[in-house]
Specification:
alpha+beta, 297 residues, Ribsml_uS5_D2-typ_fold_subgr, elongated, single chain, 5 strands, 10 helices, Ribosomal Protein S5, domain 2, 5-stranded mixed beta sheet, 2 domains
């Protein structure tokens, strides 16, 4: 009786080469995601070193504040999940967005410094993760500039809480003080510019200094305080809402006269309506959040 079959010698077996994975992250189960993460981390590190060599990093606070505003429009988590062929958790999506935000900041620094080649390289990477309708969404957010009438005035509408304000802004017309006049009446000194609210001077209509400071804030930020006459008609609400509505209208009008200050006013959040409203009173409570004192007996 013959014994068990002998194993074939190794020389009779065909040589089998061990396949090498195409990516070092193959065994993680999320190779697509981690490959993109590695690419972004490498781009962030290389860009950071180049900006440091150009002495553009670290930026002082005043230079960082003067950068163009960030306008990110990243793809949603579900869209990126289909892009990576794996469902993204919140932590992984946040990690990806953090790297993209860092690259976006470096792109704005390169843009402000005039390094077009570096900016284009970063933009090509960011475009892979941006929404395809980014341009349309940004155009929708862009405010419509106020139009000028035949007198050079701008008419804008501002809103806050229950108040609505219509604001007219016009540069003051200063006559030549040395021009001859045929009138025998003495010359009356007129202020260079004024702010009238419902045909009443600002300091008389608003007794609170906080309300007056709120109204002149966009003029101060834009550096045009005293450069324009402002006439406002406001209706509804209280003093806080009315002053906020006038501020909103003034900010929108200034952008039409001085387009260069749009970034400053946008960063100060003066070009959009303040969405905060009075919270309603709840049943069984003294006010919106105040509760009655609990009495045991």
């Amino acid at each position: 009786m013959d014994g068990p079959p002998r194993a074939r010698p190794d020389r009779d077996r065909p040589d089998r080469e061990k396949s090498i994975p195409s990516s070092p992250t193959f065994y993680t189960g999320r190779s697509e995601f981690y490959d993109h993460i590695a690419t972004l981390e490498s781009a962030v590190e290389n860009t950071h070193s180049v900006l440091r060599s150009l002495q553009l990093l670290p930026l002082p606070a005043f230079a960082r504040d003067s950068l163009p505003p960030a306008q990110p429009m990243w793809k949603s988590r579900d869209t990126m999940s289909s892009m990576f062929m794996r469902k993204l958790t919140t932590a992984r999506y946040r990690r990806l967005i953090t790297l993209l935000a860092q690259l976006d900041e470096y792109e704005r620094i390169a843009d402000a410094a005039g390094h077009i080649e570096m900016q284009n390289g970063i933009a090509s990477i960011l475009s892979l993760f941006e929404r395809p309708d980014k341009a349309a969404q940004l155009a929708r957010k862009h405010i419509k500039l106020a139009k000028f009438d035949k007198y050079g005035r701008t008419h804008t509408v501002g809103k806050r809480k229950e108040s609505t304000a219509r604001v007219w802004i016009i540069p003051p017309v200063v006559d030549n003080p040395f021009a001859r006049t045929e009138s025998s009446h003495p010359k009356v000194d007129v202020t260079m510019s004024q702010i009238l609210v419902n045909n009443i001077p600002l300091n008389e209509f608003f007794a609170s200094p906080a309300d007056r400071a709120r109204i002149v804030r966009p003029l101060k930020l834009a550096g045009v305080l005293g450069a324009f006459n402002v006439f406002a008609l406001v209706r509804g609400g209280g003093t806080t809402g009315q002053s906020g509505a006038i501020t909103h209208g003034i900010a929108r009008g200034i952008v039409a006269h001085v387009p260069e200050v749009e970034i400053i006013l946008r960063k100060a959040k003066l070009l959009r309506r303040d969405p905060r409203m009075v919270e309603r009173k709840k049943t069984g409570m003294a006010k919106a959040r105040k509760r009655y004192t609990w009495v045991k007996r």
